Amino acid sequence: MDTKEGTLLFEPSKTQVEQANITSYRTWLQEYKQIQTKDYHTLWKWSVEDFDTFWESIWEYFKIQSHESYQNVRSSKQIIGTKWFPEATINYTEHVFRNKSLDSPAIIHTSEKRQRQEVSWEKLYQDTAALQNTLEKQGIQKGDRVACYAPNIYETVVAFLATASLGAVWSSASPDFGTQSVMERFQQIEPKAMITVDGYSYNGRKFNRLDVVRKLQSALPSLKTTITIPYLNNQADFSTCVHPISWEDATGCQEKLEMTYTPVAFNDPLWILYSSGTTGKPKPIVHSQGGILLEHLKAVHLHMDLSAGSRFFWFTTTGWMMWNFLVGGLLTGASIILYDGSPAYPDKQVLWRLAEQTKMNVFGTSASFITACMNENMMPKNNFDLSHLRNISSTGSPLSPEGFEWCYTHVKNDIWLSSVSGGTDVCTAFLLGSPILPVYAGEIQCAGLGAKIESFDEDGNALTNEIGELVLTAPFPSMPIYFWNDESGFRMYHSYFDTFPGVWCHGDYIKLTDRNTAIIYGRSDATINRGGIRIGTSEIYRAADQVTAVENSLMVDLPQGNGDSITPLFVVLKDGEELTESLEQEIKQQLRTHCSPRHVPTHIYRVEELPQTLNGKKVEIPVKKILMGQDAATVINKGSLINPDSLDYFIDLAKKI
C-alpha cells in the first residue's frame, strides 16, 4: 500500500453538512450576531481575527452558567498572562449535570475484569453527590488537591466530578506508572485526599499495587484521607492507608441527594496534568476551570460533532490527557465509553467488538493502534456491524497516508476520519477535524476555531506549503494558567515562549497547505538534517515501517565535527525475521525512494524494543543524547518510561561507538 499524501478520500454529503453541529452554530452566528461565513475557512479566519467576539459567542451559544457575570473577555491582548472572562465565576461539574437525561446512559464502561455496564445520568449524579458529601466531611474544599491513582473506570469519573464540584483541584496517574513516576507527580502538588485502587489487570495478567499505594502514602505527608476502590480483589487490605474510607461507604448513601456547586473564578485551577518527565521531574501543568470548559465544549461539539445521545469513545488511560478530553464529552450530553485493559486482549479485535456492542459513534484511538491493525491485516468491516460508527479520530503521533487508506478500505468506506494534534500542554487538539470538510490522506483537516496556528521559519516568518515550527500567535483559553510551584513563571516561559518572544512554540514541525490542511512531521528537536535538508521523523518511520519485516523504527541524527552527521536507524522486527544484508538493502532502498538519498541511514541496528514514554511515545532526543556520549541519568528519567530496561542497549552501544 503506497497512498500518496494529499489523496482525496472522503467528502461529506450535503445532508451531513446540513446536520452538522457546526452548521447550526454558523446559522446562529448569522441570526444573532449578523456574522456571515461562507465556509469553514472563513469561519476560522474570523475566529482568530476577532478573538473576543468569537469566544464571547462560544460563551453565549453554549449558555455558560456564571454565578458572577463577566465584564471583559480578556484582561490583556498578550498571550502571556492573559486572563479570560476575569470577573466570571463558574463550576465545571455544574455544566455536566445540566445534561441529565432519561433517554440515554451517561457512561458505558467495561474492562478486562468487568462486564459491560450502562450507567444512567441519575446514578452518576447520585454517586457524585454522595462522594461530594464524603469529601466535604473530610475537609476537602476549594483549592485543595485530590490525587487519583486509578485506571479508566467508572469510579474515576465520579471522583473527578465530585472533586471539581467542590472547586478542588484534580490530578490523576495511571496505576501502570512506576512508583517513582507517580511519586514525582503527586509530591509536587501535596494532595489532601487520595483515591486509589489496589491493582489492575492488563493483557490477562493481574498487577497488585498495594505496595505502591503504601509507598505513595508514606511519601505524601499532606494526605488527610483515602478513598479506596477494591478493583483487583474485593477483599483488598487498605488498612495501612491514611484514614481509609471504602468506595462503598463513600458513595453508599441511601437517601436522594442534591449536588451543590462551589463557584470558582473562571481562571482558577481545574486539574493538574504532567509533562512526560523524560529529562527531569514532570512539569505540573495547571489548566483553568473556565478555559477547559469553553475549549472542550467547542472541540467536542463543533469539531467532533457530539451532542446528546452520541456515543463517544477514546482508548486511553488516566495518565494521558485524552482521558480528560473524553470526560469532556459529558458536557454535550453525550454518553462516554470507558475501557480499561489491553487493546489486544482477549484478542486483537477487542476494541472493534466494543464498537459494535456499544453502537459507538466516535472511535478515538492512536495512530499506532491503526498502524498495528493495518500490519495485522485486520478487516473490521467484514467481522463487525459498524453501521453506527461515524468518525474515527487518531492522535498520539502523525497518522500515515497508508493508515488513512486502511480505515477507508477495511473499516468503512464512508467514515469521517480525523487525525488530530495538540497536547497535554493545552489539554485539547488545536489541529483537528470538521464534519463539513473533506479528508485528504495524511492530512489534518483544519486548525481549530479560535486557534491561530501558524508555521514559522527560524526567523519567525510565516510559511505556507513549507515545513516550519508549529506556533500559536494569539491567546488560547486552555493554555496553562501556570505550572505548579513556578511562582515566577520562569519554567513556563522557558517551555513555550523563549524561541519566538511572545509566541507559543509547540515543538512540532508542521506544514500548512494552501488548502488550509496541516501535516505534522514529528518533534522539531528530533528532525533529521542531512546536508541541510531537513525531514521529520514521521516521514522516516512511514517509509521504514512499510517494509514487511519491520514492526517499529527510530532514527536519530548524530552531528559530527566535519559538518556531516551519522543517522543510525533502529528497527524492531516482526517475529521470525532476521536483519540480513538483503533486508538492510530493502530498508535503505525504501528510504531512498520515499524520503531522499540523503536520508538513507548510515547504520541499521536491530533492537528488541524501543524506549517509550508512559503514554506510548518514542523517546528520540534522550536516545540521541546518550549516543552522543551524555550520561543517561542526566538526559532521561527512567521513571518516565514504560520499558526503562530498553535503554540499556543504547547505553552499551554508546560505549562502543
UniProtKB/TrEMBL annotation:
Signal peptide region: none
Residue ranges annotated for the AMP-binding enzyme C-terminal domain, each copy included: 565-617
UniProt cross-references to InterPro entries, sorted A to Z: Acac_CoA_synth, ACAS_N, AMP-bd_C, AMP-bd_C_sf, AMP-binding_CS, AMP-dep_synth/lig_dom, ANL_N_sf
Gene Ontology BP annotations: lipid metabolic process
Pfam family, one: AMP-binding
Record's keyword annotation contains Nucleotide-binding: yes
Acetyl-coenzyme A synthetase N-terminal domain: residues covered: 40-95
Alphabetic keyword roster: ATP-binding, Ligase, Nucleotide-binding
A GO molecular-function descriptor: ATP binding
Domain AMP-dependent synthetase/ligase: 101-475
Lineage: superkingdom: Bacteria
Identification of the protein by name: Acetoacetyl-CoA synthetase
Source species: Oceanobacillus sojae
Lineage, highest ranks first: Bacteria, Bacillati, Bacillota, Bacilli, Bacillales
